[in-house]
Amino acid sequence: MNYTTLGKSGLKVSELCLGTMGFGTEAGWGSEERESFEILDRFAESGGNFLDTANIYKLGTSEKIIGNYFQQESVDRDYFVLATKYSLKDNETNPNASGNNRKNLMRSVEGSLKRLKTDFIDLLYLHIWDDLTPIEEIMRGLDDLVSQGKVNYIAISDTPAWIVAKGNTYAELMGWSKFVALQVEYSLLARTPERDLIPMAKHFGLTLAPWAPLAGGALTGKYLAGDNGRIKEGSKRLNDRSIAITKEVVAIAEELGVSAANVALQWTRQQGIKTIPIVGATKVKQLQENLKVISLILSEENIQRLNAVSQIELGFPGEFFAEEGVKKNNFGGFYERIQK
After folding, report:
1. Which residue in 68, 71, 157, 311 is a FRET match for 163, CA 20 to 30 A apart?
2. Are 70 and 36 in contact (CB under 8 A)?
3. Which GO terms describe its cellular component (predicted)?
4. Which residue, 78, 74, 70, 79, is CA-closest to 48?
């Protein structure tokens, strides 16, 4: 596996990130600790070092399993780049047991450190925007954690583009730690981040970390026969548009002699921005199949076919800027010159 730096930092991470939301069997699904250990071993043996979890995953069990894994003498904690998150409600004890506020931030991080049995978190994500806490309060709190040595880098997930931009700009003004990564739902079935989140990430040099890059398994093609698994009836992942996209993914996979999952994953990695998809696994064989993507390159024709079948409306102003009249008549032809 190759390595890349995360955002505008010097932190070296593997080209795939292992999602561990399935570590634990709460809610009736997932992997027991022993199999989770095997998945972590295989990922590390392949060169993978980037792990993703959250304080809320399996009610804290995911973090506990990773913490137990780190306690083994054969495991080098410093080899791994561990990302976790705070924001979502993890208990019923008090009204501040959720949200982006400083109190919950500090409480959540202390809880994560105990479950993970580690002295520091490599990358801490704000998990989801609460539309309540001032971004200034958040950035100051995150920078304090970095200064205390409890967190090395910060990132953000599931938040409007203008909030992320304001946060990074404010941090730059104050000399505080800035976000280095952006986690969003992004796949062939979910391309709306292309409207503003991805252009914003490019501007700030954020690494894109797509969650659900296989759309809950829909893009593997396994649901085409009618077995919907954990996807609820009426889901957008199973409507006519999604089925048409999945069929094209399967067709290209058959032409190339690879899995549909590999095609869908690789598409996210060839979208013109530094991207590290988060690949979840509850079985070793699932991980081994996903790891094959690192040797796959899609042709320009493959990309065009996938883009065409999955294209979305960018809306205003994206589509307005793309109109021929605007490009030709505005700025005295400057647009054409800079494109050349």
Report:
1. 311
2. no
3. cytosol
4. 79
Is position 84 within any domain? yes
Assess if residue 325 is contained within a domain.
no
The sign of the CA dihedral 141, 143, 144, 145 is positive
> CA 251: distance to chain centroid?
26
pTM of the model: 0.93
What residues are labeled active site? 57
| Structural domain for 201, as ranges | 3-312
List per-residue pLDDT tens for the chain, 340 residues long: 999 999 999 999 999 999 999 999 998 999 999 999 999 999 999 999 999 999 999 999 999 999 999 999 999 999 999 999 999 998 888 999 999 999 999 999 999 999 999 999 999 999 999 999 999 999 999 999 999 999 999 999 999 999 999 999 999 999 999 999 999 999 999 999 999 999 999 999 999 999 999 999 999 998 887 666 666 666 778 889 999 999 999 999 999 999 999 999 999 999 999 999 999 999 999 999 999 999 999 999 999 999 999 999 999 998 888 787 666 666 555 555 555 5
Q: How many domains does the chain have?
A: 1
328 in a structural domain: no
* Helical (H) or strand (E) element with 5: strand 3-5
